[in-house]
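Our preliminary data section would be incomplete without showing what the modeling component actually yields. Below, a chain of 86 amino acids is followed by its predicted structure, encoded as tokens that our downstream tools consume directly.
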Amino acid sequence: MQHELQSLRKERQRLGPSITDVADRSGLDRAVVNRLENGKQANPTVGTQMRYAASLGKRLVWAFKAVAESPVGNGRKGKRTAKAPA
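Predicted structure:
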């Protein structure tokens, strides 16, 4: 997630608003925005990340992508058959 936060920092710098502007727009404390941008916010919540992104006209999007081979497999250890009730 640090890579994404650094991308948002660069976007803020490109667009021009200050950290204070972003804090005002997002409703986040200025110190929180500063920690996000400097990688010192260890585990920011999804809500915090969404608010930070929204203050810059961006939105947080999560996606799942298929991998070539699932490391988990299909979840079955063997064939199962249902037993008929006695």
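The mean pLDDT is 86. Helices lie at 2-15, 19-26, 30-37, 46-54. Preliminary results of this kind motivate Aim 1 of the renewal.
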